[in-house]
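re: ur question from earlier - yeah i can do the single chain one, its not a big deal. heres the input i used so u can compare w yours
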Amino acid sequence: MSHLKSLPPDIPRDKLPRHIGIIMDGNGRWAKKRGLPRFFGHRQGAITLRHMVRYCNAIGIEALTVYAFSTENWSRSEDEVSKLMKLMKKHLGNMEMYLKDNIRPQVIGDRSRLDEELQRKIALTEETFCNRTGIRFNVALNYGGRDEIVRAAKHLAKQVQEGTLRVEDIDEKRMEAEMYTASLPPVDLIIRTSGEYRTSNFLLWQSAYAEYYFTDTLWPDFNEDAMNQALRDYASRNRRFGGV
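and the output i got, formated as tokens:
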């Protein structure tokens, strides 16, 4: 692994996003271009992810949320899903690399459909790193933005039904508290790789005022220079949040 570069001087630190979301797209196409099975793309994508987490942490990004496996991805072939889950277990088992970097990984999404071994690895990882104070690294696993909002609505409805919450007390702040990302800063920037222009059910609530950045770069080829280009673009934008 090459030494991490520092933030280029032409990117102002006071214009960095606090929270970045990434839709890591293009693993399969990366492999196909090289005549390799799709899984080789996912494996290379995992290497890219580890490097990007460390880079974002080094330059002072507070939170990074990546789309690893959506609620819709179960429709892929059984073989591909199985290999993706094995890759996730391997990634969680290699989290020691983040210890010296003070990174705090966690998983967001519905864990109920994950097998027991993966659920145990997730719980152990979160417990091991819970006191880290560096970047909050969130892996969205069996995650869907609509599913997250429905889950939050059901939880609030249950509290109303039980008499512990009044309907008139439900507002955006109360809804926000039900999101998986409740303890994190708002999402400022969402990056999607591989030339696709869809949000794909990712962080729907959290991205209400996020800036989107699309690049043709396939995820396995995404590197520090590509991230810096996204950060330059973000720094150049005038974020009005509905104002003038």
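The chain has one domain: 14-145+186-235. not sure if urs matches, ping me
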